[in-house]
Design goal:
By secondary structure, this protein is of the alpha/beta class. The protein contains 14 helices and 16 strands. The two termini are 29 Å apart.
Length: 504
């Protein structure tokens, strides 16, 4: 379940160099010829689809990807490959395969080339080596850069975008010097490299914990033993601990994250934004992104019949502030309850819990990333958004906004493909997001391209750090500025001024 919540989805969009008048047929790649299928998508419109093109060899366990040896003849690229090995939604079994490094390519003729891959592999598994998921992603991006021209794409106009752990992965990719010159634009949705769950600060301890679970030593023979162990057993051993306690929030138990390895990530992410100086960047969050975590930590959040005790808000504030000590925890609690008054309503208390988790886990790190990108930018442009279309889950409270991952259904046009499940206003949201996203991929400016937009989305640094509030009623009042500035200032300045506490 947790890996699904932070699943890695990355998509690559490229702009066609030329519009083809007929199906591509067989296409040459560095590994050999590939043949996809042509699909009709409307009157005089069709799409070439290539599924399961290998961009690297079957990966060795806990090893970086290596080039694919290639194939003879023509590879029939007509079926999806298996996803990378991962826990199922209930975290009770393992699905997928170690043989999973494949790309899917969609080519709407005369339009945008879209390359998708889904990676949900373990991003760090030992103390001194790791980041294999990030290396896999980098290898896919490099393959696209080398080969996509043969599919009609422009290798100098690559856009990557992802959500949650995918959004953080996108941020890591543009920060890494390994991708220098490969990426032109990027979009991070509800996840950046600065999120508290994005970097594993104690990978040795976590690797040893997995090793003990599968019967491996924790000395110099640990990595060799893990490489020989049943991969399903290792994957299951990496399962996170679920918590429903305000004093032990789930965000502190997300350990499958990248590491500062001195290689792919040569230093702390906040010092690497100079590598993205010429990359156009969109980053944003959902207005209640933290709700999904809040309901695990304090289950009464979604139960209108059960009040949320003030003591749980205090306990959560202290727990999320543990890196800076008890005084910082008290300060966090006071910062978020300053407007409560003497008798806050239960809905105010519940919304405060969601605000705390949204800010700490997603919003403040994303705002920090936007400031850093804008400050270091040369030719790169910076855009900020807040997605606020209310959740469509009927059992959620009436005050509920956009939960984590609520934006994905609109970006990928779900209201159009399953129209009976949505209202017209939902199709408006999808139309707006698709227009902004595709314009950005085409030109680096979400306002300019083949699609019209309801209002001009200004750059982040213009006139007071502006952002676009995205929902079904976008108008000129949707352009706002200084997103939750008081809370961003608290976490980045006041909270950060408290002395750090070393964990035992």
């Amino acid at each position: 379940m947790m890996m699904a919540m932070l699943g890695v989805f990355i998509s690559v969009a490229l702009i066609l160099g030329t519009a083809n008048a007929a199906s591509l047929g067989s296409v040459y790649t560095e590994g050999g010829m590939v043949q996809g299928k042509s699909h009709s998508v409307g009157l005089f419109r069709y799409m070439d689809v290539f599924k399961g093109i290998p961009f690297a060899a079957t990966p060795g366990r806990l090893e970086k990807p290596v080039p694919h040896p290639g194939w003879d003849g023509v590879l029939k690229a007509t079926d999806y490959s298996k996803r990378c090995m991962q826990l199922n939604l209930l975290a009770t079994d393992v699905v997928g395969s170690e043989d999973c490094l494949y790309l899917n390519i969609w080519i709407p003729q005369g339009n945008t080339v879209k390359v998708n891959w889904y990676l949900n592999d373990n991003l760090s598994m030992s103390c001194s080596i790791g980041n294999y998921g990030l290396w896999d992603q980098h290898t896919a991006i490099a393959w696209v850069h080398r080969n996509i021209r043969n599919f009609g794409g422009n290798p100098d106009n690559i856009t990557i975008f992802g959500e949650s752990a995918g959004g953080a992965s996108v941020n890591f990719q543009i920060l890494s010097p390994k991708n220098n010159g490969l990426i032109r634009r990027a979009i991070s949705q509800s996840g950046v490299a600065l999120c508290p769950w994005a970097v594993n600060r104690n990978p040795r301890q976590y690797a040893e914990e997995i090793a003990r679970k599968v019967g491996c030593p924790t000395d110099s023979g640990m990595v060799a033993c893990l490489r020989m162990t049943d991969p399903k057993a290792v994957t299951l051993a990496g399962n996170v601990k679920f918590s429903t306690s305000a004093s032990d929030p789930i965000v502190h138990n997300l350990a499958l994250s990248p590491v500062i390895d001195g290689d792919f990530l040569p230093a702390e992410p906040d010092t690497l934004f100079g590598n993205a100086a010429d990359i156009d960047y969109i980053a944003g969050v959902n207005d209640m992104d933290g709700h999904i975590f809040a309901t695990l930590d304090i289950p009464s959040i979604n139960n209108a019949l059960v009040s949320t005790p003030v003591e749980e808000v205090r306990a959560l504030s202290v727990a999320l502030s543990e890196s800076r000590g008890l005084d910082a925890g008290i300060a966090t609690y006071e910062e978020y309850t300053v407007n409560w008054g003497s008798n806050p309503s239960d809905s105010d208390i519940k919304k405060t819990v969601v605000d705390i988790e949204t800010d700490y886990i997603f919003l403040v790190p994303t705002q920090t990333a936007l400031y850093l990108h804008s400050d270091h930018a040369k030719s790169g442009r910076t855009y900020s958004y807040l997605f606020s279309e209310p959740s469509r889950i009927p059992v959620f409270p009436l005050w509920m906004g956009a939960d984590h991952a609520d934006d994905l259904q609109y970006v990928f046009g779900k209201p159009f493909t399953t129209p009976l499940g949505y209202f017209p206003r939902h199709r408006d949201v999808a139309k707006y997001m698709i227009s902004y996203w595709t314009n950005f991929a085409q030109t680096g400016d979400p306002n300019n391209g083949e699609s019209s937009v309801p209002v001009t989305w200004p750059e982040f640094a213009s006139n007071g750090h502006q952002y676009l509030d995205i929902n079904n009623n976008i108008n000129r009042d949707s352009v706002k500025q200084m997103l939750r500035t008081r809370l961003v200032y608290y976490w980045t300045t006041v909270f950060a001024s408290f002395p750090g506490v070393q964990k035992n």
